[in-house]
Amino acid sequence: MVMQMYLPFCGIAISNAQLFAASRKEYERSRALLEVVNDLFEEQTDLEKIVKKIMHRAQTLLKCERCSVLLLEDIESPVVKFTKSFELMSPKCSADAENSFKESMEKSSYSDWLINNSVAELVASTGLPVNISDAYQDPRFDAEIAKLRSKE
C-alpha cells in the first residue's frame, strides 16, 4: 500500500532527473557555441588562430578523436582543390598524449598543397556533412594518408 503511494512520485522524480540532464547537456552545447562566437570576434585578424579555436571547441563538444578543416581554393570551381589543411588530434590518438595535443594546438598541420581526400571532396562538392563513426571501415577514407599524417 505504501509502495503504491510512492510509486507515482518516483516516476515524477525520474522524469525530472532526465529532463534536468537533457537541459544541462543543451546548456553546455549552447555555452560552447557562444564561446566560439566570442572567439571569432576576438581573433578576427588571424585565420589560423580562429580555425584552431573553432576546431578545439568542436572537438570538445563532439567528443571526437580527430578533427580536420580543409579550405577550398576556389568555391566556384567545379574541380575540388584544397589549399590549406588544419588538423587536431585528441590525446587518445597519440602514444605521447600530452605533447601531441599541445603540439597540434600550437602548430596545426597547415600546408599549401592539394589534398587527395575523397571524404573531404564529397563534403565540398555536395555541401552536406558526413559523420563517420569508424573512418577506417569506410572505403572513402584513405587510411595510408592518415597514418602518414599521424606521424608528423
Automatic annotation (TrEMBL):
Signal peptide: none annotated. Gene3D superfamilies: 3.30.450.40. Residues 46-143 form the GAF domain. This is GAF domain-containing protein. It comes from Ailuropoda melanoleuca (Giant panda).
